[in-house]
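re the bet — no i am not wrong, look at it urself. input seq straight from the record:
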Amino acid sequence: MSPRAAFPGEVRRAAASACSRSRLRSGSTVLLPSMLMFGVILASSGLLLMIEKGILAEVKPLPLHPAAGEVSRRVETHGGDLEHEVLRDIRNRTIRSVCGQRAMPRSIWQLPAGQRRTVLRHLLVSDKYRFLYCYVPKVACSNWKRILKVLDGALESVNVKLKMDHKSDLVFLGDMTPDEINYRLKNYYKFVFVRNPAERLLSAYRNKFGEIKEYQQKYGVEIVRRYRKNGGKSAGDDVTFSEFLRYLLDEEVERMNEHWMPIYNLCQPCAVRYDFIGSYERLNEDANRVLEEVQAPSFIRFPERQSWYKPVTAETLHYYLCNTQRRLIKELLPKYILDFTLFAYPLPNITSEFCRQ
């Protein structure tokens, strides 16, 4: 069982504080109307309690969207993994409930121009195999791009040890005409992979500020200068996790770098009716299921993780969260609450009791 999340009252107070601060900043945008945000947070807390009490264990799955009902009926239990099916059911029901709200977009054309550009830039197209994949940085998107290149004949094998070029030999939905976009959204198989939001943020922090000089110079130098006393001489390679979170707290969601922009904003699961939502926690199983669904050649299987890859373990996440100011995490939660809620991930457990373990 996952650790218990922060108490609903604590999350509501954090949301109220963050929303108030957002209204005071000139030119900033709030992710959702305040009442809808309040309802989403309540739903998230309620779902977590239902998971803990086993209330949903006997509930029959509902389709992600009415149009995706046929896909939902193809769900099979893998090795009797009831917990996985319960989580998938929660995702389906929550997305239906939240996306059914009047204020939520029903298509990409109902999105503001900036949000529409973002999702269209992240939807990759395979016309040969008739699918759309919304790539999410830090959720195995490099390997999925390798697969797309192999399927298109631009790469010989998914195991070729080359630095990934994230732009060449890939087709983006945003480069097409409105009619071409509409046809593919209506007729192609659509999927996205998601990850625990807290784990994804920590992975981005460790990779970009611990290994990538470009990010250290572009973001790290400014973060240290802004949030550390006498930090003007930093090369940007010593950003602390708390400084990174403070930067995210002050950054407008729509202006975020894609590596830490919420998945909701990258892929817009209300405006795009995804047929399948895979999870990073079951990456190989879910990825190979998608490959079977799109009828990819049998020799193409999802690549194994590289030997140099340093995964974010539960212990690593525990260490970083428990050594960060609790107030900072609570204030940041509202920006990522839809990722936690829609994709059925537990809110970070930062209680004193848990952090003493």
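see?? The beta strands are 123-126, 131-134, 189-194, 276-279. told u. also The chain has 15 helices and four strands. so pay up
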